[in-house]
């Protein structure tokens, strides 16, 4: 039996996540017989990056506390390495603050990637969870349950939709929307014609990681390892109305998928003219217009639904992230014309729409849909955006500060990861987006102006790291 020893050193990820990946590896011992590995043992922590070609900083660049190190070691032993995590282990939260296992406090402007709209430990939300947990958690969709029907009714009453389908995530919601669009085209196709089966998606789009939703996601590096994905998707430039209208009019498009505000893609907002042109072309040809509001919906823009700002309405809308306050849920909102094409057995889910999760979502939707709550999001978003322009706008590396409500992007001419890392070291959590050059800010919608002022100050103080990043890049 032969043994192979591999030693991995620290490197920093330069992909869009821009964070180090921690493997529990200093010496990886692989005992092999022929080509088949029979034993793998990992001994102590250093770090390595999933991205090939990343520049390696000094091996002592990250100092881990004892508890943090122990958790990272265990994670590397027992979990598949799909996540490029930051080197902190979060233990509890309160409001817009998070605390790690070492006791350090962070101001959370990630909100679980735009999920924790009500922050952490909201009393009304916890009360709703506790009350429902005592009654009924799960029954499957073989039976009816009250919270599911109540949530569907409330979603219909506060949106364009006539019907709702529940899923467990944003990508599941988009998968369902793909199927519903295909079924609708088959249902409405007459005179023996072939139904439209193709889709349009746009540059900088992100719709999920399962094979159908992945096929609609523009970033090639996400799709390439898993090809062939679902065929029949054409990517057009986000905002290019003429190209979209020309393609829709060819009559082969089942549905157009578009985010009114792109999150992962870099915080880009559509124009009213662009969405209107898509709406009109779909109406002319029978194609469906699908708005993906998984990240930008449910109050984050200052409107309950981001598309309300444009006065343009879809045939289908997908939701997920903030809807159940951190519990897994997805939802597809449909017009009656689409819902009428769906029959028993066309789609389904064991866990989706459980009493426990839908009761949680009812609590969130009740809060977020109130006009004064939405007005506060708009007010705080405008306040924060202006504050960022004052404090950051003069920096030579800041190209643009954009967004609406509390979904804001800081577009840089250098990778954003050094700034994100420096903010984290100073107790502020923010994300990256786009091609790794955008700082994405999606705080809990309950955040105060005082907390936003603190965040702006930390970002301002961290700006000098960008000069070093520019120097290293050049």
Automatic annotation (TrEMBL):
Pathway: Amino-acid biosynthesis; L-arginine biosynthesis; N(2)-acetyl-L-ornithine from L-glutamate: step 4/4. It catalyses: glyoxylate + L-alanine = glycine + pyruvate. The lineage of its organism: Eukaryota, Viridiplantae, Streptophyta, Embryophyta, Tracheophyta. Belongs to the class-III pyridoxal-phosphate-dependent aminotransferase family. PROSITE patterns: AA_TRANSFER_CLASS_3. GO terms for biological process: L-arginine biosynthetic process; photorespiration. This is Acetylornithine transaminase. Transmembrane segments: none annotated. Pfam families: Aminotran_3. InterPro entries: AcOrn/SuccOrn_fam, Aminotrans_3, Aminotrans_3_PPA_site, Class-III_PLP-dep_AT, PyrdxlP-dep_Trfase, PyrdxlP-dep_Trfase_major, PyrdxlP-dep_Trfase_small. Keywords: Aminotransferase, Photorespiration, Pyridoxal phosphate, Transferase.
């Amino acid at each position: 039996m032969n043994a192979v020893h591999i030693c991995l050193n620290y490197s920093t990820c330069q992909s869009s996540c821009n964070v180090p990946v921690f493997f529990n590896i200093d010496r990886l011992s692989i005992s092999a017989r022929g080509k088949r590995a029979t034993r793998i043992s990992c001994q102590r922590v250093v770090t390595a990056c999933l991205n090939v070609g990343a520049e390696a900083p000094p091996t002592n660049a990250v100092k881990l506390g004892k508890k943090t190190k122990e958790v990272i070691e265990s994670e590397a032993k027992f979990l598949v390495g799909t996540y490029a995590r930051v080197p902190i282990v979060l233990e509890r939260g309160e409001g817009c603050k998070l605390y790690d296992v070492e006791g350090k406090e962070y101001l959370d402007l990630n909100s679980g990637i735009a999920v924790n709209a009500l922050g952490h430990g909201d009393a009304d939300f916890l009360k709703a969870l506790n009350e429902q947990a005592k009654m009924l958690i799960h029954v499957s969709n073989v039976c009816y349950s009250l919270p599911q029907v109540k949530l569907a009714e409330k979603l219909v009453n506060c949106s364009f939709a006539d019907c709702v389908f529940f899923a467990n995530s944003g990508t599941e919601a988009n998968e369902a929307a793909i199927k519903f669009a295909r079924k609708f085209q088959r249902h409405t196709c007459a005179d023996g014609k072939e139904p439209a089966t193709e889709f349009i998606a746009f540059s900088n789009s992100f719709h999920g990681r399962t094979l159908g939703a992945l096929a609609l996601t523009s970033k090639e590096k996400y799709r390439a390892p898993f090809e062939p994905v679902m065929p029949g998707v054409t990517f057009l430039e986000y905002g290019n109305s003429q190209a979209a209208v020309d393609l829709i009019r060819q009559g082969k498009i089942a549905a157009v998928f578009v985010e009114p505000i792109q999150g992962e893609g870099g915080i880009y907002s559509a124009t009213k003219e662009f969405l209107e042109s898509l709406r009109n072309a779909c109406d002319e040809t029978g194609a469906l217009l699908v708005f993906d509001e998984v990240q930008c919906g449910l109050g984050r823009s200052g409107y309950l639904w981001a598309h309300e700002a444009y006065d343009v309405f879809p045939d289908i809308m997908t939701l997920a992230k903030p809807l159940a306050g951190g519990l897994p849920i997805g939802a597809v909102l449909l017009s009656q014309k689409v819902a009428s094409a769906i029959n028993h057995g066309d789609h389904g889910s064991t866990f989706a729409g459980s009493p426990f999760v839908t009761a949680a979502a009812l609590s969130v939707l009740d809060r977020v849909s109130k006009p004064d709550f939405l007005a506060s999001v708009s007010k705080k978003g405008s306040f924060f955006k202006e504050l960022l322009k004052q404090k950051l706008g003069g920096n030579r590396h800041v190209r643009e500060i954009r967004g609406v409500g509390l979904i804001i992007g800081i577009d840089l001419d250098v990778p954003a990861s050094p700034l994100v890392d420096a903010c984290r070291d100073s107790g502020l959590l923010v994300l990256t987006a786009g091609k790794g050059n955008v700082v994405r800010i999606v705080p809990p919608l309950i955040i105060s102006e005082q907390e936003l002022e603190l965040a702006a100050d930390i970002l301002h103080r961290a700006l000098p790291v960008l000069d070093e990043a520019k120097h290293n890049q050049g």
